[in-house]
Amino acid sequence: MVAAAKRYGCRAVGYDIDPRRVEQSRVNAKRAGVENLVKIERRDLFEVDLRRASVVVLYLSPKSNARLLPQLERLAPGSRIVSHQFDIRGIRPDKVIEVYSKEDRHRHTLFLWKTPLNY
Ligand SMILES: C[S@@+](CC[C@H](N)C(=O)[O-])C[C@H]1O[C@@H](n2cnc3c(N)ncnc32)[C@H](O)[C@@H]1O
Q1: Which ligand 1 atom sits nearest the alpha carbon of residue 15?
Q2: Whose Cα sits closest to atom 4 in ligand 1?
Q3: Which of the residues in the chain have pLDDT under 70?
Q4: Domain assignment present for 7
């Protein structure tokens, strides 16, 4: 999210239920100089209306991804969903890619979808 705001100048809203993660993310956004573009809120993701998002980025457990499905189905057509490491069970991704992170020197799997979702 911070990287996307830095590279593309897009606005982003991040949610986490853990206050330490929220604080850490706010520090990251400030360090990257994008605190004007990135808002981090302490919220339960399952109570958030995601319909205004054009891109939703997830790094949740497979169980949480599945639970989020009703909210993802309400996204406008053409919205994009990116999930780090875990797929959404039962929903066919449009693409699965592997990226190498210079930060942790590991390969990461990204699952990509465009709405409407394909079962
Ligand atoms: C695998 S970690 C990802 C951490 C970090 N967001 C990242 O991208 O590196 C999953 C995160 O989901 C958060 N989380 C789990 N359930 C949540 C919920 N219901 N609402 C908001 N955040 C939640 C956890 O607190 C945890 O920080």
Answers
A1: 21
A2: 59
A3: none
A4: yes
